[in-house]
Amino acid sequence: xxxxxxxxxxxxxxxxxxxxxxxxxxxxxxxxxxxxxxxxxxxxxxxxxxxxxxxxxxxxxxxxxxxxxxxxxxxxxxxxxxxxxxxxxxxxxxxxxxxxxxxxxxxxxxxxxxxxxxxxxxxxxxxxxxxxxxxxxxxxxxxxxxxxxxxxxxxxxxxxxxxxxxxxxxxxxxxxxxxxxxxxxxxxxxxxxxxxxxxxxxxxxxxxxxxxxxxxxxxxxxxxxxxxxxxxxxxxxxxxxxxxxxxxxxxxxxxxxxxxxxxxxxxxxxxxxxxxxxxxxxxxxxxxxxxxxxxxxxxxxxxxxxxxxxxxxxxxxxxxxxxxxxxxxxxxxxxxxxxxxxxxxxxxxxxxxxxxxxxxxxxxxxx
Length: 367
Prior knowledge:
Elements: H1 20-37, E1 57-58, H2 73-86, E2 95-104, E3 107-116, E4 119-128, E5 133-135, H3 141-149, E6 170-175, H4 180-196, E7 201-206, H5 213-229, H6 234-244, H7 247-253, H8 258-272, H9 274-280, H10 292-298, E8 302-303, E9 305-308, E10 311-313, H11 319-327, E11 365-366
Parallel strand pairs: 6-7
Antiparallel strand pairs: 1-5, 2-3, 3-4, 4-5, 6-9, 8-11, 9-10
């Protein structure tokens, strides 16, 4: 991958039970289509590409000093390739060559073939016709909007999902701590945690791979340790986390001992080899094995995935919808279930709890 051009190192939302097979088939096709068309994923073997730039990279070293006017497509491709090689912008052991150069919308589209070991993938970049600027990727805004708008809306039909009842339901939200849609689910989840307290076993678990880099890996482990060492203070920490995204400040607000959490983080890192796996993995999405057994048990594929009393279910991303789902899993619902929470779907990404627009989303983060 092109070091200095991209950073690519965040579960997916299951649909209604009666539509699950069709939905999974559509999701599989959508994911496969994105592998070839998604402009955000013009990358190969995540650790090979180090920095993402959404603007333009000025190729001052491209060898185009003094160039004026249009150069040929072949020359543009050759100069871009030489610049990448001469400036060590590919990971050692990675092979790169120009597969094709063509004109597209007033630019040269350069298709690089990049190989590492037995893995090969094409990466498309763009060069201006005077050879002075390289665009790491092109953003087709029309396709992007169509893809976004095609996301299925999520509704809650908990009664029809045959949730097994128990005296103390177990709710498990599998997320990636930097996935916009995982954060959306957490925002809706937090008020339910605060309302029901220990009446239900409401926990946060993690998808078994990282999609959003080292910061996500670290934040996953911090939340894991807060839950392990200070379970009663987890809702307060999470509320601060999704709104402020400041580890030390959130520990202070939730009145959690930092030394205890830091020790837990060190122990978890040793137990699950978190940093070691992340650093050495050649995978685009390095494994994160803290909740790997649960991921395999429930077939978790992306963020968010919601499991209630051992059953993966579909639920709208609003506090009221999640509360209703959990309360429907009690043999004898507590009085707290009579309280009404917000039925407004939360907004994706970091931000205040309760700031949603009401437009539900079926989006998720999945490999």
